[in-house]
Amino acid sequence: MSANLIFLIAQLMVVWLVFKALLNVLNTVISAAIAIFVIAIILSFFGFSPQELIQKISNLPQMLQQMVTDIKKFFGW
Predict the structure, then answer these.
(1) Residue 77 carries which DSSP code?
(2) Which of 20, 27, 28, 39 sits in a 20 to 30 Å window from 2, CA-based?
(3) In the chain, domain spans
(4) In whole angstroms, what is the distance from residue 23 CA to residue 52 CA?
């Protein structure tokens, strides 16, 4: 078996692995996008606008910090 044939087979294997990895990433991105779309549709059905959702998400760190502070006060830490 010549070295060129071995090199070609190795290149094909690497290309196949990269292709599969990219397909997995694409599948994950599409699944996440569909999930976000479905959640947004459900929230809009219940009267939440995308702006309200973004506002709640941007206030999340402050809410978590306040919750931790309240828990510390409750336990006397």
Answers:
(1) -
(2) 20
(3) 3-75
(4) 34
pTM of the model: 0.56
40 close to 56: Cβ distance less than 8 angstroms: no
Q: Which spans in the chain are helix H?
A: 3-45, 50-75
d(CA 55, CA 61): 11
Q: Alpha-carbon distance 57 to 63, whole Å?
A: 10
Give the per-residue pLDDT at 26. Answer: 97
- pLDDT, residue 1, reads 67
Query: Which residue is it, tokens 């990433």?
Result: 25
Can you tell me the distance from the alpha carbon of 38 to that of 30, in angstroms, rounded to the nearest whole number?
A: 12
pLDDT tens digits for range 21-71? 999 999 999 999 999 899 888 888 888 888 888 888 899 999 999 999 999
